[in-house]
Amino acid sequence: MSQPGAALHLHLAAFAALSSADRKLLDAAVARKVRTIGPRKDIISEGERPRVVNVLLSGWAMRYKQLSDGRRQILSFFIPGDLCDANVFILGQMDHSIGTLTEVTYAEISATDFEHMMECSTRITKALWWSELVTLAVQREWTTNIGQRSAYERLANMFCELLARLHLVGLADGNSFDFPLTQNDLADATGMTAVHVNRTLQQLRRDGLIDLNNRHVTVTDPEGLKAAAQFNPNYLHLDGGVSN
Amino acid sequence: MSQPGAALHLHLAAFAALSSADRKLLDAAVARKVRTIGPRKDIISEGERPRVVNVLLSGWAMRYKQLSDGRRQILSFFIPGDLCDANVFILGQMDHSIGTLTEVTYAEISATDFEHMMECSTRITKALWWSELVTLAVQREWTTNIGQRSAYERLANMFCELLARLHLVGLADGNSFDFPLTQNDLADATGMTAVHVNRTLQQLRRDGLIDLNNRHVTVTDPEGLKAAAQFNPNYLHLDGGVSN
DNA sequence: CGAAGGATTGATTAGTCTCAACGCAAGTGG
DNA sequence: CCACTTGCGTTGAGACTAATCAATCCTTCG
After folding, report:
1. What's the pLDDT at B243?
2. Which of B96, B115, B117, B90 is nearest to B43 (CA)?
């Protein structure tokens, strides 16, 4: 990625083509405060007060909740271009944590900068709303995934979603992509145990749907994987918004 | 509920006290187009294009997804005062359906009315953002609930959440409230089967935590229920926003 | 009175978890 | 440069939660 804001442009461009003025506005907001942080660290923890909007520029991160007895649910993955909740600073405290999976660079956008951005461009405002609505839709899909689908379908779905999203921001090379998650992470994201993830992955490999090793995934049979997952990408709303 | 918009006022007032001007603005938006619809009907179905923002005035509704093989995941419950996604009309099509559980009255707010309302009052705009962020937080909690908790904990959680939310809009009488869901609905909301819901409810009753019959719930041991659920209401963000 | 929807119960099975061990590769310190 | 540690993936055996299938009961309502 040659330029820090590139993934963000691509992310929002899924909703609407941005003008060069829009892009400048975004780049300015994203350039103000850039941070780098190592893998497996919290960017912000449950209970803290959110003061800024974070935008992921490179690396992978996750949203998660930890229960008092140690159980952890990963709620979503952040890939470059993703926003960690527009306007979160309205809330008094975080109800979950955001942590890194790899080394990560991210931009902090202050409340005033964020609001300024929304005042300056209706197109950006709508794109941010779109992004927020898609975040919600993804969360609903995860609820459905965990609530209704079998272990096999769940994992298939996860790979379908990640492939689609990574593709969007130019981080998938055809049907393959770098995949920094451990089987334990995958377990906590899908509501299963690491042992069962392991066995289910073997099944997916045996069925020739995916190839996963060395932190790299290749979807060897995209159509088969989609079918196994009953994957319907409508919830990603990549068809371009209504108001374009 | 003496007045149609009352639940909405109470809902938003959880974030910030509204001025009488704000209240008038809301009432006007909510009075423009009010509809009534019977139980077990769709208000809007997956695949349709959303054109308005719906606000529930009375009755219960749900958000759900239906898989091609008939499995259904209920994604959230709507009670009076709830908004069905601010700015949804930005999206090209619904990725899920919204259906009623009881007879329902709801208001349709057009895109222009909605945008007008946000332009007129920053307080309302923020309250709507708050509401949207809470919707997201609730969805995350449901993901966690289904992904990490046992059947027993899941149901306990559901009752804790509903009690808290109903209380907010004045629909809980102490620790009890009307509860129009069937065990089958509860099953589809928690990712279990109706049979297992039945058995788990019996356990909750035997443990003296709740009393459920005739479409009415009484939480007989609120503290016990919260403990069993490991219920932490922080995700409802009822502490009042930061910017008050 | 009969029909229908929902709640309840029982018996059996399947899917997933638990616990425990082992393998492998990469990294670290002496 | 080797011994040790550590993190992650893999395997096996057994236990248990929750699903499945099917029957029965209860209540409500036309």
Report:
1. 46
2. B96
Q: Say whether pLDDT at A70 is over 50.
A: yes
Give the count of beta carbons closer than 10 Å to the beta carbon of residue B205: 14
DSSP 8-state secondary structure symbol assigned to residue A192: S
Contacts of A190 in chain B (CB under 8 A): 147
Q: What is the pTM (predicted TM-score) of this model?
A: 0.96
Which nucleotide, over all strands, has the C1' atom closest to the CA of A181?
Answer: D8
CB A142 within 8 A of CB B143: yes
Domains and CATH numbers, chain B: 6-140 (2.60.120.10), 151-236 (1.10.10.10)
Residue count of chain A, please give it.
Answer: 244
CA–CA gap between residue B166 and residue B174 (Å, rounded):
10
Chain A positions touching B144 (Cβ under 8 A) are: 65, 67, 73, 75
Distance (Å, whole) CA B91 – CA B179 = 32
Lowest mean pLDDT among A53-57, A148-152, A212-216: A212-216
Strand D and B193 CB separated by under 7 Å: yes
The SS3 call for residue A28 is helix
Whether A75 and B144 lie within 8 Å, measured CB to CB: yes
Strand C bases, protein C-beta under 7 A: 5-11, 15-20
